[in-house]
């Protein structure tokens, strides 16, 4: 089995190839485009806040507590209007 050299031993010239530089330029453009699109979202925190709900939903499915994203978001916004016990359990997760 071949050993992997330490990072300190790698030289930058090893990665200075036309193929890598083309991918670098392409990925840089795509990241700039993503940054521009993200800046156009008025409340970017909304997207981040949904990650916790999605993780709770997926984890709860292991315990046979099944609900939909739609039910979760409705119950999160208007808890008194929706009486879905599975959604309430996931939101308490």
How would you describe this protein?
The chain contains four helices and no strands. The protein has 93 residues and is mainly alpha-helical. Helix 2 packs across helix 4 and helix 3 crosses helix 4. The longest helix has 22 residues.
Structural class: mainly alpha
Element-level helix/strand string: HHHH
Largest sheet: none
* Shape annotation: elongated
What's the N-to-C terminus distance?
45 Å
Describe the secondary structure blueprint for this structure.
Elements: H1 18-39, H2 45-62, H3 69-77, H4 85-92
Helix pairs in contact: 2-4, 3-4
Compact overview of the structure:
The chain has 93 residues and is mainly alpha-helical. The protein contains four helices and no strands.
Task: Provide key terms for this protein.
mainly alpha, 4 helices, 2 domains
């Amino acid at each position: 089995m071949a050993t992997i050299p330490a990072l300190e031993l790698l030289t930058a010239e090893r990665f200075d190839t036309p193929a890598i530089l083309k991918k670098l330029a392409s990925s840089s453009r795509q990241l700039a485009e993503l940054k521009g699109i993200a800046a156009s979202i008025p409340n970017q925190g909304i997207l981040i806040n949904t990650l916790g709900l999605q993780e709770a939903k997926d984890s709860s499915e292991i315990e046979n507590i099944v609900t939909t994203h739609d039910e979760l978001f409705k119950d999160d916004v208007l808890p008194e209007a929706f009486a879905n016990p599975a959604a309430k359990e996931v939101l308490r997760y």
